[in-house]
Amino acid sequence: MKKIPDDIKHEIEVLVKDLTEHCYRYYVLDSPVISDEEYDRLYRRLKELEERNNFILPDSPTQRVGAPPLDKFKKVRHTEPMLSLDNAFTHDEIREFEQRLKRFLDSDENIEYTVEPKYDGLAIELTYRKGVLYKASTRGDGYEGEDVTNNIKTIKSVPLKIEPGHPLEEIDIRGEVYMDIKDFEALNRDREAQGEPAFANPRNAAAGAIRQLDSSITAKRRLHLACYGIGAVTGIDFKSQLDLIKWLEDHRFPVPLNIRHVNGANKVIDTIREIEERRKDFPFETDGAVIKVNEFEMQQKLGVKTRGPRWAIAYKFPAHQGTTKIDKIILSVGRTGTITPVAFLEPVNIGGVTVSRSTLHNWDEIKRKDIRIGDIVVVERAGDVIPHVIAVIRDKRTGTEEKIPPPDKCPVCGSVVEREEGGVAFRCIGLNCSAQVQERIKHYASRAAMDIEGLGEKNVELLYSKGLVTHFVDIYKLKKEDLLELPRFAERSAQNLLDAIEKSRNTTLARFIYSLGIIHVGEYAAKLLAGNFENIEDLYRTKPEKLIEIKQMGEKIADSIAHFFNDPENLNTLKMLKGLGLKISNPDFKMTGTGTRPLDGMTFVLTGTLPESRKEVKHLIEQMGGHASGSVSGSTDYLVMGESPGSKFKKANSLGVSIISYEELMKMIGEGELK
Ligand code: IVH
Question: How far, in Å, from the CA of 304 to the mean position of ligand 1?
Fold first, then answer.
C-alpha cells in the first residue's frame, strides 16, 4: 500500500472516531449533538479521503454499507453452542424453577436473579477479535449458524469496534436483533403500497431483513439490537449478569430496557407482572421475560441441559392465540390490483378481542401451510398486529375441506390476472376494476393520507355504489342533500362528514403525495419527496433522472412517479383538486440555510401527560426543526413537562436543563403559524 501522509491519516482517524461517537449518541443513547446534515457532511468527507488515499480503517462507518451481494451465506460454527431456554407459562412454574435450583445447589439460601424483557426477534452472535467486529452469525441449529456479518454491520447501533479499547483476544457477544413495532407497521404499509405482501409480525420482518443476500436491502430496514449475553471469551472475567450488562453498556453496546435485579421467586413474579403491564408502552414486541441467576459462579455450578441452561428460564406471557374454523375464503382486491386471500373465521375471542377475519397473505403461504376452507386452525394476534393463521390442525380434518386455487381472473371485474414477476402476488390488470377504484378512494381518505374521519370502508362502498363518489375528486363535490338520501346518514352524521372533508382541504404535501396512491410511494417515500420539493408542481415537472439524485430514492420509485405524472388524467386530477380548494402546505421542505424554523437545532425531551399524544407533540417538534429525544442528557435544551412527570424531571433538574410547559412550547412555535 502507498504510504499515506500523516496529516491525512490523522484526519481519517479523527473522522472515524467522531462519526462513531455521533452514531452511538444517535442510535444507542437517542441523544444526538449534531444535525443529520452535519453528519452527512462528515461522512462524505471521510468517504472522499478513503477513496482518494485507498486507506480504510476496519471500523470505519463507511464499511457498514456497500458490501457486494452474496450467492449464499457461509456456515459458521459457534465456539460455545447457542442454547435455547426452557419455558414457564405460570407463576407456579417460576416457583418450581427456584425449587429445582435450590435442590440442585443443595442450599436454601436466597437466590438473586435478573429479570429482562424477552425480545421477540432473532438471536445473533457478534465475534470481536482484538476489539474489532470480525464476524456476526445467526443461531442456526445452535451449533452452526450463518455468516450474516455484512447485514449486521448495517445496524447502526452495532459497534464496529469495542470502545474504550480492551486487551481482549476474542469475545462472542450475543443479543437479539429486532424491529420496533412502529417501523414494522410503516414497513408493512409501504409494502402494501407497493403491492408486496405484508409481514405477519416484527420478528418475521427482522428475520427477513437479516436473511437478505444483498445487504443494501437490510440497510433500508430499521433494525435494532439488544445484547444480553456472551459466548466464548478470553481475557476478561465477568462476575455476574449485571456485571456483564454494565460492561456492555460501558462499551457502548445497546442492552435490554428495564433490566431488574431481584431476590427470590416472589419478587421475580412481581417484576414479571410489572413488565407485563408496561409492555404495551415498549416500542418493541415482547413475548415474555427472561429470568437468569445473576451470579456467574452459581450459573457454572448449575450448568446446562440439552435444550438450555439450568440457570435461566423464559416466562411466556399468555399467548394471544385461539382455535377456530375457516368458514370461507374471500379474495380481496387491493388498490394496486393485488389479490389477497382473506379467511373468514367462526368468531373467536383472543385476549379479549373477537377475531373473525385473518389475512392469508398469498398463495405461497396457503400452499406452505396447506390451508383449506373448512379447516380448524390456530390463529394468533400479536399486539396491534393483524391476526394470522399459524397452523392447520390436521387431525381435525374430515375430508370435506376444500383447497383454494390461485385466481385466473379478477373476482371483482373479471379481468385477466397476472402473477407478479419474481414475486408472490397475483394482480388484476383491469384499470377500472371497481375494487381498485374503491380502494383508491379509501386510501385517499385514510388516516395517514388525507385523514377524513367518517370516510372509512363502509361509507366509501355506499357512496360508490350510489354513484356519488366514483373517484376521490368527487369527495369534495358531496352535498348534504345527497347524503341525507342515503340509509346511513341523518342530519348530524351528514354534517360531521362534510366538516371532516372541509378540514381535510388543509393538508401537507407529504400527506397529499401519499394519498395519490402512486405505486411504490409509501408514507416514507412521500415524506422524502416533500422534503425535497416545495410543492407538487415542482415534483411533477422533475424528470426521473433528477429524482434518482435524491438520496434513498430508488429507480423503481422514480420511474413510478414519472409514469404517474405522465398520465394526462392524473394531471387533470391534480388540477381539479386545486380547483376544488385544496390548500397544501409543506412543513417538511428542507430549506437551505439555518434558522428557518422556530425550533431549529434544539433538543426536547417530553415527560408526563401532555394535552396531545406524545407522537403528535414529537411530530410537531420535528416539523418545526427541533429534535425530540427519549432521554435527558447534557445536550437536552428543554424538558417539556406535562402532568405527573416521571424521573426525567429529576434528571433535568439536576442537569440544569430548562423546564417548560406544553403551553410554553406552543408559544415558542408560534401557535398561529401552525394551523
Ligand atoms: S438469554 C442460553 N435474554 O429468547 C440462552 N434470551 O427462548 C440465553 N431472547 O434464544 C438467552 N430476549 O433468542 C436471553 N433478554 C434475553 C432475551 C433472549 C430474547 C431470545 C433468545 C433466545 C430465546 C430463548
Answer: 15
